[in-house]
Structure prediction request, 256 residues.
Amino acid sequence: MSSALLDDLFGLAGRRAVVTGASRGIGARAAQALDAAGATVALVARSEDQLHQVAKTLTNVPLVVPADLRSEAGVDEVAAAVADAWGGADILVNNAGLSRPAPALELRTEDWDAVLDVNLRSVFTLTRALAAGMLDRGWGRVINVSSVLSLVGDAWAAPYAASKAGLNGLTRSLAVEWASRGVTVNALCPGWVDTDMVADLRADPNFDKRVLRRVAARRWGVPEDMDGALLLLAAPASSYLTGQTLVVDGGLAAGW
Prediction:
């Protein structure tokens, strides 16, 4: 296979990508992978200092957009910054996520609402804002970062699991609506990935043993494990791939 064909299939030179939750973990790594493939990246998260640290790792000059996606004002700030700087985006990675683990009977309604606001509502509102330009131009990639907990159940995860299952449904609906106009919408579904969000769980010997027992690969994932799937979903190569949930979990959901 020639390098020219590989560039045609997977090259992202000239593409403009927005990554939310880009200050750490899977989001920071996604920004680095897209940048390495040639895209210019807008880094979105609440922590401006952390975003600038990630920005230093990129080759192409990024756009740093500190914003709180829990509010519509924050979503509007991101859309306005991207429109002013670039005139629009070609790729959107909805990675920002929130978890408030608690037993269901003790879960506060405000925690349920907070998780759903970040993990589901903000995905819809930001996608709605940025996808309009993609549809006008006839090319776009929306990648929603879901979770293996959208597919399998676990205790203390009711709002997180519900939000991610809803995200899978949103992915399929938007994919069907926009497929004929050149915009694909897919979900990237990580398993247990060693990031700051799960640091407490990772440090619990009993939970660690449980993960290693359930995951067929017998290890925790790392953000770099998402690179191949992410780049496939962002690339020209995936023009006929839409409405899918691509699971990258080391074989967890495939077992029992």
Summary: The two ends are 39 Å apart (CA to CA).
